[in-house]
Amino acid sequence: MWGGGYGFMGGFMMLLFWGAVIALIVFLVVRMRGNETRPSEPDAQETLRRRYANGEINEEEYRRLKATLDE
User: Fold this and answer.
1) What's this model's pTM, rounded to 2 decimal places?
2) Could you read off the pLDDT of 13-51 as tens digits, one per residue?
């Protein structure tokens, strides 16, 4: 009844084994889903370059803001 003749210890080891297998599967699923759900935020330098490239700010403002960020 408890692990094929090994008594209580056999049943305990069987539960421990299956618990470890289930925990490993849950860990892998959570880890794989975690990589997809985190949006990457652009840093300030990248946002500044994008705004300059799109023409939202002129060169003078770009250089002033870039100098401020570099401090």
Assistant:
1) 0.43
2) 889 999 999 999 999 988 888 665 555 667 888 899 999
Encoded tokens for 58: 């002129």
In SS3 terms, the chain reads as CCCCCCHHHHHHHHHHHHHHHHHHHHHHHHHHHHHHHCCCCCCHHHHHHHHHHCCCCCHHHHHHHHHHHHC
Q: Between the CA of residue 18 and those of 8, 12, 31, 57, what are the distances in Å?
A: 16, 10, 20, 60
R_g (Cα) of the chain, nearest Å? 28
Tokens of 11: 């049943």
Domain parsing of the chain, residue ranges: 1-38, 43-71
How far is Cα 68 from Cα 65, in angstroms, rounded to an integer?
5
